[in-house]
Amino acid sequence: MADPITAGLTTLGWRERLALPQLGIALLKAKLDTGARSSALHVDTLEEFHRDGTTWLRFTMHVGRRQPQAVCCEAPALDRRTVTDTGGRRTERWFIRSEVQLAGQHFSVDINLTDRRHMLFPMLLGRSALMGRFAVDPARSYTQSRPLLAAPDSTR
Length: 156
Hints:
This protein is mainly beta. Helices cover 3% and strands 54% of the residues. The chain has one helix spanning 127-130, and strands at 10-13, 15-20, 25-33, 39-42, 45-51, 54-63, 69-76, 79-84, 90-102, 105-114, 123-126, 134-137. Strands 2-3-11-4-10-9-8 form a seven-stranded mixed sheet. It has a three-stranded antiparallel sheet with strand order 5-6-7, with no helix packed on it. The protein has a two-stranded parallel sheet with strand order 1-12. Strand 6 (54-63) and strand 7 form a beta hairpin. It starts with 9 loop residues before the first strand and ends in a 19-residue tail after the last strand.
């Protein structure tokens, strides 16, 4: 008997490839974590600045494992929120809102920017982003083809 909650949802594995088109990131490996409320993106550097009376964030990250390439991104700051990590430590983090491209879908997600250099995946996609869109099968991984990203958004 089909589960009425997951009926009609695309089933993904515990890890998938996605794109962040607004940030000009064509391919990024992400861990899908139904235990985490929010989504997180690794950044190497993070700088706050103001543009037209609005707080913006400029950050860099390295994309790719074999030949990592530095990517510099800018996005308006959404807000700062307190996040509790898996170890129970509470920290205040900057959040942005960005489009995610995954499994043929495009949707906006609130993403906190943090240092994930000791983590296996540069992006964690939490349950707030997954809910109502996807079901996650922890026995599967990389169920989707690589996202096909159009030309990077010129507003970066």
